[in-house]
């Protein structure tokens, strides 16, 4: 479970301010499959993921649900709600992939904190900068990296997120979910996974992918 010291995005605040931020948050728990926020709903709070993993999903032009990202402890979503004079709506639906807990910081509480502490301004800048960096990296990857490399990198990220020790890591996601995350078709992603399985790097199962050799996967991801 993430705590004050594990949310690196709070590093711009001193210890007292970090404690104050967390004291103003609301602890929320969610069961597996429960929706944390709905796409299109008013966005009035930032969520810090304390435990569990959640999927960020959007509706495609054809009405399908597409998984854009998976977030784990230490991650966050909803930062646009903290901007002054902004009345955004949720740009995605966030669903718990397992029992999860977040710490919800309302825009009202944040604006009050911002009024009292200049460090809160830096926190908002940090939130926005990290999101821009992440989106820029994903765009460059989509434009210039082949499908194989994208699959390797998503698997590496997911393995780090789900790892609980030095051994094999079970990623409880389907190949369809992985295909959505890398922007490829399921048959094409399956071919990449079959090659990895043939090399003994992963093992494929129903609704899961087991990373057996993280070191070799890391080398392939670059």
Automatic annotation (TrEMBL):
Q: Name one GO cellular component term.
A: cytosol
GO molecular function terms listed in the Swiss-Prot or TrEMBL record: DNA binding; DNA-binding transcription factor activity
The HTH crp-type domain covers which part of the protein? 145-215
InterPro entries for this protein? cNMP-bd_CS (IPR018488), cNMP-bd_dom (IPR000595), cNMP-bd_dom_sf (IPR018490), Env_Response_Regulators (IPR050397), HTH_CRP (IPR012318), RmlC-like_jellyroll (IPR014710), WH-like_DNA-bd_sf (IPR036388), WH_DNA-bd_sf (IPR036390)
Recorded hits in Pfam families, A to Z, give: cNMP_binding (PF00027), HTH_Crp_2 (PF13545)
Write the record's keywords in alphabetical order, separated by commas: DNA-binding, Transcription, Transcription regulation
- Cyclic nucleotide-binding domain location: 9-113
PANTHER family, from UniProt?
CRP FAMILY TRANSCRIPTIONAL REGULATORY PROTEIN (PTHR24567), HTH-TYPE TRANSCRIPTIONAL REGULATOR ARCR (PTHR24567:SF74)
Name of the protein in its database record:
Crp/Fnr family transcriptional regulator
């Amino acid at each position: 479970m993430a705590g004050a010291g594990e949310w690196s995005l709070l590093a711009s605040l001193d210890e007292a301010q970090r404690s104050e931020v967390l004291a103003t948050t609301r602890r929320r728990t969610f069961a597996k499959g429960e929706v944390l926020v709905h796409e299109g709903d008013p966005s009035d709070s930032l969520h810090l993921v304390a435990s569990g993993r959640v999927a960020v999903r959007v509706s495609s032009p054809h009405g399908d649900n597409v998984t854009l990202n998976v977030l784990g402890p230490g991650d966050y979503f909803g930062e646009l709600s903290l901007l002054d004079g902004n009345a955004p709506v949720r740009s995605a639906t966030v669903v718990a992939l397992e029992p999860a807990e977040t710490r919800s910081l309302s825009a009202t509480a944040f604006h009050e904190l911002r009024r009292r502490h200049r460090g809160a301004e830096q926190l908002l800048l940090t939130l926005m900068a990290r999101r821009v960096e992440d989106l820029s990296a994903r765009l460059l990857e989509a434009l210039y990296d082949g499908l194989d490399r994208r699959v390797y990198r998503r698997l590496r990220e997911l393995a780090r997120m789900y790892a609980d020790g030095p051994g094999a890591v079970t990623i409880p996601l389907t190949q369809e979910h992985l295909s959505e995350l890398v922007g490829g078709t399921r048959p094409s992603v399956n071919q990449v996974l079959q090659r990895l399985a043939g090399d003994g790097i992963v093992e494929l199962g129903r609704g899961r992918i087991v990373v057996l050799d993280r070191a070799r996967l890391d080398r392939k991801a670059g």
